[in-house]
């Protein structure tokens, strides 16, 4: 398959630079794979398209302020972007600056030093956060690494809205964006409609923004990411399937986590790369945002919904002035 077959033109003004408030006021496009129909609605009305007993599965990973500014012992300024969770203390990182060598200690604050452990490739390194409480120190000194296509720095609104309302386990450097539409009020409404919920953890790496640099879809690779699918979630998935109800994945991260785990609890790393031709085992329906052209996220959505149908929906979204990307509107594929 050619990567160019997953291209489309997006007018710059349709890239959502800021979040909608309240969260559930985003638009919702509803795609039905059986009759190939497209409906337009608001995210607040999501429960109307689900059935009592359906199971929504969310990613409860929490975005960390992973962009750090520090100094070398010589006084030279250095920017460190934590890109991939390994442990609370150890990360892969992109480091800007000259003479970055193993053993270098970058001073960020009196309670946080970044030590370079190993050079991986070009500007990528393995680092250790030297701190009594690394996550607390990150929260104090770091900036939220909002997506590069927003073309702006972090603002106070991002600390609230580039985070899900149920974020719990620290480790992501990018938000699971399909979940950003869920307000406390909408979650309560879903309960009233008898819709169940469960959680997985997938720590989103900066690789989610990695451009596809090959011409053939099959030749691309995604970066490994930490995943945990607990036994409670697997139990709910099995019960949902047994009752003939649907497992609804909220976001591409949840799709990859559930399809990695199958029907058994799982903790480890996933490099599952889903593109058209993939046969889905667990996921019955799928909520997602509108993704960049020629991206691995768009390949995954096309694998689930069908390339022609999805690209037709994207053209309709452009015509209807939907908002695109991380802070954009949502799509439900049934």
From TrEMBL:
Claim: Glycosyltransferase is one of the keywords in the record: yes
GO molecular function list: S-adenosylmethionine:tRNA ribosyltransferase-isomerase activity
Pathway: tRNA modification; tRNA-queuosine biosynthesis
Enzyme class at the top of the EC tree: transferase
Source organism superkingdom: Bacteria
Reactions accelerated catalytically: 7-aminomethyl-7-carbaguanosine(34) in tRNA + S-adenosyl-L-methionine = epoxyqueuosine(34) in tRNA + adenine + L-methionine + 2 H(+)
Keywords: Cytoplasm, Glycosyltransferase, Isomerase, Queuosine biosynthesis, S-adenosyl-L-methionine, Transferase
A Pfam family it matches: Queuosine_synth
Any single Gene Ontology cellular-component annotation: cytoplasm
Enzyme Commission designation: 2.4.99.17
GO biological process: tRNA queuosine(34) biosynthetic process
Subcellular location: Cytoplasm
KW Glycoprotein (keyword) present: no
Similarity remark: Belongs to the QueA family.
HAMAP family documented for this protein: QueA
Annotated function: Transfers and isomerizes the ribose moiety from AdoMet to the 7-aminomethyl group of 7-deazaguanine (preQ1-tRNA) to give epoxyqueuosine (oQ-tRNA).
Complex formation: Monomer.
Protein name: S-adenosylmethionine:tRNA ribosyltransferase-isomerase
Lineage of producing organism: Bacteria, Pseudomonadati, Aquificota, Aquificia, Aquificales
